[in-house]
Write a structure and sequence with these properties.
Blueprint lengths: L1 E4 L5 H11 L9 H10 L5 E6 L2 E10 L4 E8 L8 H15 L5 E2 L7 H9 L15
Parallel strand pairs: 4-5
Antiparallel strand pairs: 1-2, 2-3, 3-4
Amino acid sequence: MEIRPYQPADFGALDDLWREAFPNDPPRNRAERSIPAKLAMNDDLLFVAVEDGVVIGSIMAGYDGHRGWLYSVAVRQSAKRRGVGTALVQRAEAALRALGCPKINLQVRSTNAAVIAFYRGLGFAVEDHISMGRLL
């Protein structure tokens, strides 16, 4: 497995992966909107995990100079429990650390016990905050 920066030729495979991993996400989170917006940031913080020429995972990171964020961490169902997610998080953490990022945040649905356990295993902790949002 190789983890590398996203390339335009990865779009179809990444779109398929996200549809598998996040079937109930709203249209605003779909690849056709999210990927061009991310690429416009020119921050090189979108990575894919590739095995035998096939995209099997992804992670998108962001850094605003204050906190880093992880988004769209996805692993193909057929590749789960093989360390792909861990390797993706480590790659994004390294990239954020290199930018001087002091802390990483992420959001997880409160009902997703498996994903919460995954991040706890990587050293993340549930913080006593309320997540708020507003559509623009």
